[in-house]
Write a structure and sequence with these properties.
alpha+beta; disordered N terminus
């Protein structure tokens, strides 16, 4: 199996975790909605040895806390408790800012995740029959909130971490496909009885595992009914290493796709579909992001991309991440601490250069 290279700027130490008896809901603030998928075929399930190796790879790399972990083998998905809704904190709007910038040699994707103060995980995966990927996970939805972290310490206590692949809030695979989500209160997803139903976060895993291009990612979303019943409805910004980008939204029960017509595309928490350029400027985060991206013609270094994320950050911004869609580089800042950026790398597929 491919080994994943990670080069944290701060040294990590082994995370200490204890058993959390109840799996929290599969929903999160920026908008995950969750639905337990059927169990994987036996040939794709994780072996006991792979599970042990996965849990032993857990490392603490930031006092946020932020952990890293490499997942070995396939995703074992036993039956899960029903998901519970994630309540919006009082007085806080839905957040999240996303953009793709492909004007430079190294196409970049930036994303702020804005929500409650929860532990986070940077997860590396390489499932049988799927693409290698790196993704961010809010650990509170696996039961590991701040109240439980102090007592965590046994291998048994880490067992819920084996569900982490099913909760990607954003991520990139080794072909340079990146996807992230943001809440969209107006979204109404279509429902077709002939299609399978998947959750708002689970579908991100499907794209990371199966899609190399924006068109493939859009098609995967279109082949599924989206279950947003446990939390806010969502829209998605999908981008790839060729420079293509699209925002997938759900308007009046129909899927709508807005493609970037230049070297950049941005999204926050309103629908691009049906909105005019003037209307979009009413949102300060979109106005700030679009202004910088247009001014540079989508050409940015990762430092400039992180600076843009800083400019649109909110008091509830929990992580800011920049993915290099051609380089495989991942740059990550926690809790708006932009003086301390952690750097990692996902080895990219040789087929994509």
């Amino acid at each position: 199996m491919r080994e994943f290279a990670s080069m944290a700027q701060r040294g990590g130490r082994r995370a200490h975790l204890v058993l959390v008896a109840v799996l929290a809901g599969l929903l999160a603030a920026c908008g995950p909605a969750g639905h337990a998928p059927p169990a994987a075929p036996a040939s794709q399930r994780q072996t006991a040895g792979e599970a042990e190796r996965t849990l032993a790879s857990l490392r603490l790399v930031d006092s946020h806390p932020l952990y890293t972990m490499t997942f070995y083998g396939g995703y074992t998905v036993p039956e899960a408790p029903a998901a519970t809704a994630a309540a919006r904190p009082a007085g806080r709007p839905w957040g999240c800012s996303l953009f793709a910038a492909s004007g430079a040699a190294t196409a970049l994707y930036g994303r702020n995740f804005d929500w409650s103060d929860h532990p986070a995980l940077l997860l590396f995966t390489h499932p049988p029959g799927g693409y290698a990927a790196v993704s961010m996970v809010d650990l509170s939805y696996l039961g590991y909130d701040r109240a439980h972290l102090a007592a965590l310490g046994s291998p048994a206590g880490r067992r819920a971490m084996l569900r982490a692949p099913l909760l990607p809030f954003d991520g990139m695979n080794d072909h340079g496909l990146v996807v992230g989500m943001a809440a969209d209160d107006q979204a109404v997803a279509p429902h077709d009885p002939a299609k399978p139903t998947t959750g708002g976060v689970r579908v991100i895993r499907l794209l990371l595992d199966q899609a190399r291009t924006v068109d493939q990612g859009v098609a995967i979303i279109g082949r599924h009914n989206m279950d947003f019943s446990g939390g806010p409805p969502l829209h998605y910004l999908v981008a790839d290493a060729t420079g293509r980008a699209a925002v997938v939204e759900f308007v009046d029960g129909r899927q709508r796709v807005t493609y970037g017509d230049g070297p950049w595309l941005a999204a926050v928490n309103f629908q691009l579909s049906g909105s005019s350029a003037r209307q979009r400027q009413h949102d300060w985060r979109y106005r700030t992001a679009s202004g910088r991206l247009a001014g540079t013609h989508g050409s940015m270094s990762w430092h400039a991309a992180m600076s843009l994320l800083r400019a649109v950050a909110q008091p509830i911004t929990r992580w800011s991440v920049v993915y290099g869609m051609r380089s495989g580089d991942v740059h990550l800042a926690m809790d708006r601490d932009y003086q301390r950026v952690h750097s990692f790398r996902l080895p990219m597929s040789e087929a994509d250069g």
